[in-house]
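Marked as duplicate of an earlier ticket. Keeping the data here for the record.
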Amino acid sequence: MYTAIHILSMVIAVAFNTYYGYKLGLSKAKAALSSAFSLMLLYILMLVLAWVESGFKNFGAQNMVRTYAFAPLVFIVVCAVFKISYRKVSDLHAIWPMILHGVSHFACIPEGCCGGFTYRNGTVLCDIANAMTGTNALPQQALESVAALLIGALMFLIAYKKKFNLNGRLFYVMIIVYGINRFFWEFLRDNDKVIVFGDFESAVKGSLGLSNLSFYCIGMILVGIVFLVVFHIQDQKKLKAQVAA
């Protein structure tokens, strides 16, 4: 079930991007092939990054969050192979990561991984969790999935409002928004913390702190801001040159 849902998420992401890339002005074949190629490169990068994190001991991972801050480097390869402009490739990647994450993360529910904290009996969060799931934990995986899909829907709405006449910024807007969103969720996850601020004393069985993915989220936010600033400066220079001419 877990692997099947992940494969399904990839198929849905590429299928969506075939349509979305066509709306951006690419042929359906180029949109599909370039999207599948990007997905393959990012998946390989995910495995390598997770391998490095483990001290070269464990090879394998299912979380592409760690790759998005490095995606601009992957875009260079995609541009060279498919002869698409860098900004077009950036826009092409603005939505499908949220679809991929939103669908694939539902696989974690039956698997029992990537869950949130267990809340102690008698606390408000425990009462809410019990009302929602019948357990002492909130449905962390489902909440994260829905949040990602909503971000993807927001990015699509922005593209639709602009009649898909974009300027290369949408991917960087997405990773800023998603980076902030995921950074928040990492505080609620029952995972290993790289930096521990302290243990929850009464409400939660676990520690408050920053996980490894928290730092990737910070990287996403910083990369997104840098690219938006650079693109803004480039566009302003171009506009001034046109006015002067």
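See parent ticket for discussion. Residues 2-244 form one domain.
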